[in-house]
Request: fold
Amino acid sequence: MIVETILVVACAAACSLLYYVATKNKRERIDFHGKHVVITGGNSGIGWDLCIDSFKQGAHVSIVARNQDRLNAIKKELESIKEKNPVFKSQIIQIESLDISKSCEETQKAFDRLVENAGPVDILINNAGIFKALEFTNTPAKDFEDMIRVNYLGSVYCTKAVVESMKQRRFGRIAFVSSQAGQIGIFGYTAYSATKFALRGLAEALQMELKPYNVYVTLAYPPDTNTPGLELENLYKPEETKIIAEGSGLASPKDVSTEIMKSVKKGSFSCSFGINGFLLTTLTSGAGNITTFKEGLIQITMLPLCRLIAIGLVHYFDSIVKSCFKKKQNLATK
Reply:
């Protein structure tokens, strides 16, 4: 009887603490209407749909990317939407051709130009990224450097360009588009995964700094998504990586965009996709932020099961790698 009583009291205390923390972490829900939204890498893939969805929800949209032709294409698409419906007449559309990895100073100047036309940035979505799947020994050092510069430092530079204004206004949302490869290391992603894991550390520390200013961070973990970038990657992706990736399915850019925007509106720290994404996000929740009591309760209760599933999953991945290794060895001996 004493043991049962202690367990009940402990559970009640844990739930009370969890409820208290969730209440303190409650975010104000926002919408995109009238907000100045900047989307990096907005000229293709997930970014393309983020631009369209943001615009249709009433935002002033600024798109930052390197490829001028693709920038012109997304601008034309948004202007076409604007022309067909007078409700979008007052919204601002602007593009900025910029290599966000080049320097913090150049990025700041570009953002200053965007702010001059559309006002302070309310929502920043760090979506730009590059990736290449190769085994570690086959990955040139330059690929590691390029991915660090674009995927990580590019996000740092863009965030630095807006964060002081958000702090002064006591309002803002910052999203980082990571990847499921930023939750679990996968064969062939030694360079890519490292940059996406880095975004996790940046997002967690930054959220702790910005919370008193009513500025909230969202970290999204999309799976493989049906984008032009993925098509290019598949041309040289190792067989092991292809087989592992096939088990996670393929998301549409539209679905990924929808979930990211929902999470940004709610101020949710984590944004996952599908059952695999839910399991990975629960498993890797660690010391991350929670935004609702339900979210925290699910993570606490599901963590042991998710860990067990992950052990089996990694064992399965190892068996794929082993099978491919044997195949290579057999071909080499023929």
Remarks:
- The CA atoms of residues 134 and 238 lie 6 Å apart.
- The first helix runs from residue 2 to 24.
- Residues 29-308 form a domain with the Rossmann fold fold (CATH 3.40.50.720).
